[in-house]
RNA sequence: GGAGGAGUGGCAGAGUGGUUUAAUGCAACGGUCUUGAAAACCGUCGUACUCGAGAGGGUACCCGGGGUUCGAAUCCCUGCUCCUCCGCCA
């Protein structure tokens, strides 16, 4: 969430940023500033009154000690009389604060100045195109869901029996391939200096709110009412929240974490041909990287993450391109997002396999993640990215690497799988 | 799930209704001394909001929420977490 001081001091920039996002109700900015003025006035009034009451209470204590009971009793009445006022001011302040908070939660992050204008995914900018050749498959090449059946890689119908639609059951070499990819990604990430984390797969509402899933994506998460817990939609949520309510020392930067978790997403209302097979499922595996950075270095860090993810795809020998998302397509909490898309040759489509973002202070403000900056505290920057999401990588691997003899495993994965082909 | 105990600053740990503006110790930071270091000594040392050009001032916060009182870290209610014992259990 944005900081009110930032909105007050850089109102023009905020309005321009919101416009880039096609944010439809920019008048909330004026509302916020007006409510904040009222909040400050209310707090000043309340504090004055409390100061006066504190002073009198102390006086009453002194009078009692001196045995001047009558005078003390008279003063008691003075304080008692202002009690109602204190109470109503407190309530007013609380209401204003929560109204401001709710309103702030509805305002998305301000895009970085380099973010392109646009409304939909069609307006995203190709940041790095694929300039090598694309796989040239024969006309009878199969989409991954048919390959899965042919080679017993995963079974969607069985998942439907066990759980419901969108919960694949991986089998045999397919299951081993999942495990191999997870290990490969984690090893690559830790080699790049990321500490491996194995977090809980459920989080409480505080955590979901801090990273921005609540209230914005409430309907996308599986929720267990009985225990008031959410199944994580990404490792970003538990991992980023490790540093909720923390004040870092400047020399602790950069903090680099990586975690494998399954991800659970309701994906309400998405059905149809374009979500067949592994293109969109309710449960998938993902290895995430998360960073906490000094504001001066967060964009350099973002660039570094970009190259890291690109390196992973290079090792998997998958054709990919990098998009810079336009204002209309970016996530609510992000300031700048790059998407990685892998080319899935049999479907002849680009599939999103990674999203790498800088959230600047948007998450850290909700999380109260600061660092000591001389005498004061300053909000840190948070970033994260997939490195990588498995399901669609598997889809692309199956399709692009199909041969008459079976599915060829990329060189770098073989020491994890122990086999060279799925046949 | 049952019974009992406990939650105070980075850590340890005092504090059961009014100089608590939370003692003291440790750690940390700055300084004096020293060739350097250690020791010693002096000083600084929570967070947030707010007023102020600044110096500095005000308010709130002792696990969270509510209450009693002129006044609450302290008393009451409630929730959460941790510890001990019992039960259940991969």
How does this structure look, described?
Strand 6 (223-224) and strand 7 (229-231) form a beta hairpin. Helix 3 (27-65) packs antiparallel against helix 4 (69-105) and helix 5 packs across helix 12 (390-400). The strands form 5 sheets. An 8-stranded mixed beta sheet has the order 1-11-12-13-16-10-9-4. A 3-stranded antiparallel beta sheet has the order 5-7-6. The protein has 423 residues and is an alpha+beta fold. The model has no long low-confidence stretch (mean pLDDT 92). The chain has 13 helices and 19 strands. It has helices spanning 4-9, 11-20, 27-65, 69-105, 144-151, 156-162, 172-191, 205-210, 236-240, 298-315, 362-367, 390-400, 414-417; strands spanning 125-128, 154-155, 169-170, 195-197, 202-203, 223-224, 229-231, 247-248, 255-264, 283-293, 320-324, 336-344, 349-360, 370-373, 376-379, 381-389, 402-403, 406-408, 421-422. The longest helix is centred in the N-terminal third of the chain and has 39 residues, at 27-65. It is elongated and about 100 Å long. The structure holds one RNA strand of 90 nucleotides.
């Amino acid at each position: 969430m944005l900081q009110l001081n930032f909105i007050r001091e850089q109102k023009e920039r905020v309005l321009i940023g919101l416009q880039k996002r096609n944010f439809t109700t920019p008048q909330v900015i004026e509302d916020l500033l007006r409510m904040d003025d009222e909040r400050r006035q209310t707090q000043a009034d309340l504090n004055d009154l409390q100061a006066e009451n504190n002073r009198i209470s102390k006086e009453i204590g002194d009078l009692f000690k001196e045995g001047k009971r009558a005078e003390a009793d008279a003063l008691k009445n003075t304080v008692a009389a202002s009690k109602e006022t204190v109470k109503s001011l407190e309530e007013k302040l609380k209401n204003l604060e929560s109204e401001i908070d709710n309103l702030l939660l509805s305002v998305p992050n301000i895009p970085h100045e380099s973010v392109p204008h646009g409304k939909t995914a069609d307006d995203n900018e190709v940041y790095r195109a694929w300039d090598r050749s694309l796989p040239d498959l024969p006309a009878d090449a199969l989409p991954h869901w048919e390959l899965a059946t042919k080679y017993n890689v995963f079974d969607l119908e069985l998942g439907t029996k066990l759980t419901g639609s969108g919960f694949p059951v991986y089998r045999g070499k397919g299951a081993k391939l999942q495990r191999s990819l997870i290990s490969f990604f984690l090893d690559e990430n830790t080699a790049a200096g990321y500490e491996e984390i194995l977090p809980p797969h459920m989080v409480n509402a505080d955590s979901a709110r801090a990273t921005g899933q609540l209230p914005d994506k409430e309907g996308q998460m599986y929720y267990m009412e009985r225990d008031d817990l959410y199944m994580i939609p990404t490792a970003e949520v538990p991992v980023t929240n490790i540093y909720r309510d923390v004040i870092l020392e400047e020399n602790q930067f950069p903090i680099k974490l990586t975690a494998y978790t399954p991800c659970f997403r309701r994906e309400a209302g998405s059905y149809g041909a374009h979500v067949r097979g592994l293109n969109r499922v309710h449960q998938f595996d993902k290895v995430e990287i998360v960073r906490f950075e000094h504001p001066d270095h967060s964009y350099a860090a973002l660039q570094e993450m970009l190259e890291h993810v690109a390196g992973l795809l290079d090792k998997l020998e998958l054709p990919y391109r990098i998009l810079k998302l336009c204002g209309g397509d970016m996530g609510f909490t992000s300031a700048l997002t790059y998407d990685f898309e892998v080319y899935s040759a049999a479907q002849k489509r680009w599939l999103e396999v990674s999203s790498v973002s800088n959230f600047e202070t948007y998450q850290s403000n909700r999380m109260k993640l600061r660092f000591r900056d001389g005498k004061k505290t300053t909000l840190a920057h948070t970033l994260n990215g997939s490195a990588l999401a498995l399901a669609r990588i598997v889809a692309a691997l199956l399709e692009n690497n199909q041969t008459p003899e079976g599915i060829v495993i990329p060189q770098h994965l073989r020491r994890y799988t122990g086999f060279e082909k799925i046949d």
